[in-house]
Write the structure tokens for this entry.
Amino acid sequence: MYVAVKGGERAIDAAHAWLAEERRGDLGIAALSVAQIRAQLTLAVNRVMAEGSLYDPDLAALAIKQARGDLIEAVFLIRAYRTTLPRFGASIPVDTARMAVIRRVSATFKDLPGGQILGPTFDYTHRLLDFALMAEGEAPLAQDEAGQNDTPPAHIPHVMEFLNRDDLIETEIPSDATPPDLTREPMELPTTRALRLQALARGDEGFVLSMAYSTQRGYGRTHAFVGELRIGMVAVQMNIPELGFAIDIGEVEVTECETVNQFKGSKTVPPQFTRGYGLIFGQSERKAISMSLCDRALRWRELGEDNIGAPAQDEEFVLMHADNVQATGFLEHIKLPHYVDFQSELELIRRLRTEAFAAREAAE
């Protein structure tokens, strides 16, 4: 039986108005501005940009405000907006060795060219609530106190280069082939590493983190060291046909992680280290590390390893469930009207119960 819903449009308008009231909150408190969100909730902004596949801090901050702090809803808003934008070209690969570094650490070498740069990090903070932050009129740190006056070298080589010199780690073979674009082409399995990395970069941070954690607990073949983790600004360049060369068109903040993983070798390859890789918009080191661990776990086939049945080694399981927008849409659709479907299920259960009771009475 299908029952028409009455007053639907008025109810929806009222729900929108109520949502706007809830978003604004107490009128006695100053409204939170987009500029404040961008400047002070940068890690949330970075996550929305990364999972929304659009580098625009202002729009990400706006989406967070509109979504009342629901980051997955904000990602959805950014992706929806992104589909309306025209595409007029493609940039060339960024050179992370020329990154203007604000943070760079290695868990494999203590002393390395360019040095360890701790940068802004929670790593050395005590996980205790700082009630001073509730006070009004905080005095900002001076630049020298914040450690922002140190100028990093213009070129900081990657740690992997040192291992590569001694042939201790697999050599990455560069390719000029244009990688597929996950935002324009549907993902087909099995897929390429380039497409896997795109999917992981767009994937939900919590899901990718849990997959990475599972590999560390034995559900995978990764025993990883963070070869290098670096955060900073990189120039975005684009070839201009009229000029005949590439020019800088802007810069973006990225987090890059390269992990060093054990590899026992194969019939054709001697024992050596292998790589895991993660690159993400903004300062998002947890996501970058998780991405690199998942990347390495998913490479078992190309490295000639056995699949031990770990979830993180299952390409379809990881990539098809990592997208929080797709997952949210499929999950939340069940709260929409399913009256016809439910009525058919209800009639089926009633008939089966009637038949079961009749059979029981006949048996007695």
Summary: Residues 145-149 have pLDDT under 50 and may be disordered. The chain has two domains: 9-82, 96-120+144-325. The CA atoms of residues 110 and 116 lie 8 Å apart.
